[in-house]
Amino acid sequence: MTSFNLRRARLRSGEQLREQVELELEPFLLGGQEYLPEPPTVVGDLSITKATTGTVFELSFQASLRGPCFRCLRETTIEESVRAREYQANTPGDDPDLRNEYLHDDELDLTAWARDAFMLELPEKILHAPDCAGLCPVCGKDLNDEPHTHEELGSDPRWAALDELRGQL
């Protein structure tokens, strides 16, 4: 786990600290498939700005993610640019919007923050190409390599009684 100790910053109101940090990225499990960050460690830019009411944290980095295409399971790599911002009020009270969930006892959990920020930047479906045709639902062949159709299959004899009822209605 990568973390940053805020006691090192020693900022006064209006001051800012900028530092390059090494971030450990964890694998993701999406739709039952594992996606691996490549490389598992990246260099990111951390900015901490002390304001009169609290502290603003900013994190930015670029990373790649490798895993199967959602439609055809072909090995896919996508690259994302991540920019995240968090705020911690000096006196947050019970308001969760004024509290930074990655900050615990003056330690900023950069690994969890980077993971969550990276996840939010990912597309809804990871595809090897925007026009991926996927797999054939009948035979399972990759429709990108072999576009085809199947003859209409006859009805399943187990549904014959329901077919008769449909005819009566």
Describe this structure in words.
By secondary structure, the protein is mostly beta strands. 12% of the residues lie in helices and 39% in strands. The chain folds into two domains: 3-121; 133-169, no CATH class. It has helices at residues 110-121, 160-168; strands at residues 3-5, 16-24, 28-30, 33-38, 41-50, 54-68, 75-89, 103-104, 107-109. Strands 2, 3, 4, 5, 6 and 7 form a six-stranded antiparallel sheet that branches. The chain starts with a strand and ends with a helix. The relative contact order is 0.17. The mean pLDDT is 90.
Layout of helices and strands:
Layout: E1 3-5, E2 16-24, E3 28-30, E4 33-38, E5 41-50, E6 54-68, E7 75-89, E8 103-104, E9 107-109, H1 110-121, H2 160-168
Antiparallel strand pairs: 1-9, 2-5, 3-4, 4-6, 5-6, 6-7, 8-9
